[in-house]
């Protein structure tokens, strides 16, 4: 039995793809194309999330939810690819969520030095 979370399992796969050939792995091809290509994919996926959230017609709420979940999953995946490309694990993100848990969003924003 694997005690790792799905994010930790994805971290492992994304790390392994760093040593794969770009023509054999989609993720390896993104790594080979660099940060700009990964950012472009994140931008595309962000737009698809926004469109999925905005453009549903309310006639089939389950289908609308499934579509939004699908698009958010794509966005998260490509965000994880970027993190792995920058040698940042998903654990760093969950730790930051834990740090912020119970902290007012207004207080957290005010604590940033660049706000």
Q: How does this model look, in words?
A:
The chain is mainly α and 115 residues long. It has a single domain (6-102), classed as Helix Hairpins, CATH 1.10.287. Helix content is 71%, strand content 0%. The protein has helices at residues 6-16, 26-33, 35-54, 61-85, 90-100, 105-111. α1 packs across α4. It is globular and about 40 Å long. It starts with 5 loop residues before the first helix and ends with a helix.
Summarize the biggest pleated sheet: none
What's the SSE pattern? HHHHHH
The oligomeric state is single chain
Task: Provide the number of structural domains.
Answer: 1
What would you call the structural class?
Answer: mainly alpha
CATH superfamily: MazG-like
Number of helices: 6
Strand content: under 5%
Helix-residue proportion: over 70%
Topology, number of strands: 0
Reported by name, the CATH topology is Helix Hairpins
Whole-number radius of gyration?
Answer: 17 Å
C-alpha geometry: globular
Second CATH tier, the architecture:
Orthogonal Bundle
CATH class: Mainly Alpha
Distance between the termini: 45 Å
Q: pLDDT average, as an integer?
A: 91
Taking pLDDT < 50 over at least 5 consecutive residues as the criterion, the unreliable ranges are none
Main features:
globular; Helix Hairpins; mainly alpha; 71% helix; 115 residues
Topology:
Elements: H1 6-16, H2 26-33, H3 35-54, H4 61-85, H5 90-100, H6 105-111
Short structural description:
By secondary structure, the chain is an all-alpha fold. 71% of the residues lie in helices and 0% in strands. It has six helices and no strands.
